Amino acid sequence: MDASTSRYRDVYARWQRDPEGFWREAAADIDWFEKPVETFDPDAGIYGRWFSGGVCNTCYNAIDRHVAKGRGQQAALIYDSPVTNTKQTFTYGRLLSEVQLLGAMLRDFGVGKGDRVILYMPMVPEAVFAMLACARIGAIHSVVFGGFAAKELATRINDATPKVILSASCGLEGARVIPYEPLLDEAIKLAGHKPETCLILQRPQCEAQLTPGRDHDWRKTWEHAVNYAKTSECVPVLATDPLYILYTSGTTGIPKGVVRDNGGHMVALKWSMQYLYGVNPGEVWWSGSDVGWVVGHSYIVYAPLFHGCTTVLYEGKPVGTPDAGAFWRVCADHGVVSLFTAPTAFRAIRKEDPDAKLLKQYDLSKFRALFLAGERADPPTIQWAEEHLKVPVLDHWWQTETGWCIAGNPLGLGALPVKYGSACVPMPGYAIDIVDEANKVQPVNKIGSIVVKLPLPPGNFPTLWQQDERFQESYLAEFPGYYKTADAGYKDADGYIYVMSRTDDIINVAGHRLSTGGMEEVLASHQDVAECAVLGIKDELKGEVPCGFIVLKAGVNRPHDVIEKEIVALVRDKIGPVAAFKLAITVARLPKTRSGKILRGTIKKIADGDAWTMPATIDDPAILDEIGAAMKTHGVGS
Ligand code: COA
Ligand code: AMP
Questions:
Q1: Backbone phi, then psi, for 249, in 5-degree steps?
Q2: What are phi and psi of 26, to 5 degrees?
């Protein structure tokens, strides 16, 4: 890795000189039904739109064009599921016929261009077929992660108002079977909007009781479609039409519907496969994430297929399915050249197999690079992976909103030297500044809010689903001329970006983004709770885990441990197991400033065992001792 041999600086400078020319050239790698009228239209949308007037189809670029160009026999998708003991390969040709069929099935249910379809599915091939089938017929998919509870699903149903929901009878979490149908039924009961149809994939581990009139059996519907030789064609859509909505945590309990369009998404993702990840068409790529997250959307499904790669869909965990060698086994079995996952997965592997003994059982000769994202890659994890894998281990930073990397180490252009703790350098398309509260650009090495100059590059979200105002307020209002990432950090003299923390109440648990504000809403809804605060505290495995502090209403004299258990159960029930909320601590009072603001930062420092000083504005210093003592009884803090 040598800065002098990397093409990065030249390529980034080329983009700076002529952003539109840069993306116009990248757009030549996409098959358009009609070429864009303008590469960038500054007057369209909120901050301008990419590839205005272009007519295209995302599914065509992911599948059809590869079949047309002779990749029909090449593996497109490898389903590897240790939890069901299954390995299955789908060629591009087979993927095409599955997606054509499912597209036809959706059309028969009345789904057309612009209609929304919710997917609440485990990591099975049908989830990938479904995303692509929606893209094929111009429908807008919205995938909801399986670890969310019924209420969260209901919120998304109300916002996206889907015509159809695609689901499965169950998910498999290691050895546990999680029935989905009760969650789906409850969500539809809670939601004001009622979808007309649900298509349910029955899995043998737990068959669902189908609701007559509403539910249809996926396989029977498929057989019917096969028998009648049904098919569907790629529907031309505008580059600026939405491809999908993906909900992500905002600062309240109401999630944000991040919209992705078709044209910019294809151009940016295709570019990233070659130049950021350094992967070639025909090679095997694996993103160890879930289709419910943005990483899964972009790098399990879309980008590798746009690029003509083989993508691995892994239904399992880094440990326990069956052991900490699972990731090496998948890489060896399928000849994976690059893996993209979250640091937490590697912390889990390292914890179980600190000397990476299991790695020695597998042939990883094809393996070239490990990419980490979703949370800051802690240096010990990177060093451990480097030591054992003996390949570049590259952190990169991005968000659901951006859809692809903001800052990373572009292996495809020649990797730059790794600096531990840094996500590396801005990708073309992103002009990153560090600013203070007055929007003044900060000098090198000074921490501040990380912002991106408008316009955002192709692939980034143009707005929030039917919430242009919330988009403006949340992202554009605070720092005029910029997109607010809500991450804080700094830039060093070489232009490397260091992402240190969020500036809002979002926490990152095992690479999953969660709102503590949303959790506080749930805690506050408990009958006995007068006041509460939720914050993320350090966790060796998951990076951070939520911890709730509750003050009980006067007169409540039920045992604290009983109430705390109820609170834990309530969060699981209202938000879902993914929140990993396992710790509620009853305290007599919460520490506040004299103006009444809860001193979350100080509580967090005490819980994390970090050095802290008494805030000058504190109302009553004795409260911090009380909190410290309460934490100790729960095994938290030093
Ligand atoms: N459906 C239902 N439940 C789910 C689920 C799903 N799709 N995904 C997770 N859950 C449940 C888990 O079973 C767990 O439940 P529990 O509290 O009853 O044990 C809970 O949600 C928390 O899940 P998670 O945070 O993933 O913890 P874990 O202990 O199961 O696994 C890791 C820990 C580190 C192995 C796991 O988080 C991992 O592999 N992370 C990779 C990161 C990743 O995929 N990031 C996405 C962005 S790149
Ligand atoms: P999500 O939208 O779920 O992808 O989460 C995005 C958030 O995760 C970012 O705003 C960061 O806070 C955090 N994040 C993701 N990748 C990184 C990284 N490489 N380094 C530091 N933080 C990261």
A1: -65, 135
A2: -65, -35
Ligand of minimum distance to the alpha carbon of 544: 1
Tokens 């500036």 found at? 503
Residue 638's pLDDT band, with cuts at 50, 70 and 90, is: low
Closest to 330 (Cα-Cα) out of 71, 62, 83, 72: 83
**Among 296, 306, 300, 233, residue whose Cα is nearest residue 265:** 306
Q: How far is CA 27 from the centre of its chain?
A: 25
513 CB within 6 A, ligand 2: yes
Region 516-534: mean pLDDT is 95
> Within its chain, how far is the Cα of 252 from the centroid?
18
The residue whose C-alpha atom lies closest to atom 16 belonging to ligand 1 is: 577
CA 558 to chain CA mean position, Å: 40
The residue count of the chain comes to 638
> What would the pLDDT profile of 417-443 be if each residue is shown by its tens digit?
999 999 999 999 999 999 999 999 999
Cα 477 to middle of ligand 1, angstroms: 34
Q: How many angstroms is it from 92 CA to the middle of ligand 1?
A: 30
Closest CA to 246 of 368, 118, 389: 118
Average pLDDT over residues 391-413: 98
636 - beta bridge partners?
none
Q: Is the Cβ atom of 296 under 6 angstroms away from ligand 2? A: no
Indicate the top mutation candidate among 378, 396, 397 to test ligand 2's pocket, ranked by most ligand atoms within 8 A of CB. Answer: 397
Peptide bond into 455 cis (omega under 30): yes
Rounded to the nearest angstrom, the distance between the alpha carbon of 468 and the centre of ligand 1 is: 32
State the pLDDT at residue 620.
86
Q: Ligand 1, atom 22: nearest CA belongs to which residue?
A: 578
CB count, 10 Å around CB of 543?
Answer: 23
Tell me if residue 525 falls in helix, strand or coil.
Answer: coil
Tell whether the model's pLDDT for residue 2 goes beyond 80: no
How sure is the predictor about 594, in pLDDT bands with cuts at 50, 70 and 90?
confident
Compute the distance from residue 574 Cα to the ligand 1 centre, in Å: 17
Please report the pLDDT score of residue 427 as a whole number. Answer: 98
Catalogue all structural domains in the chain, each as residue range(s) with its CATH number: 92-260 (3.40.50.980), 262-418 (3.40.50.980), 431-504 (2.30.38.10), 506-633 (3.30.300.30)
Taking the mean position of all CA atoms in its chain, how far away is CA 580? 17
β-pair partners for 41: 49
pLDDT digits (tens, 9 = 90+) for 357-390: 999 999 999 999 999 999 999 999 999 999 999 9
- Residue 294 in contact with ligand 2 by CB distance below 6 A: yes
Mean pLDDT of the region 521-534 = 96
How many CB atoms are located within 10 Å of the residue 71 CB? 19
Q: Could you read off the pLDDT of 150-186 as tens digits, one per residue?
A: 999 999 999 999 999 999 999 999 889 999 999 999 9
**What global pTM score does this model have?**
0.96
Q: What is the mean pLDDT of the chain?
A: 96
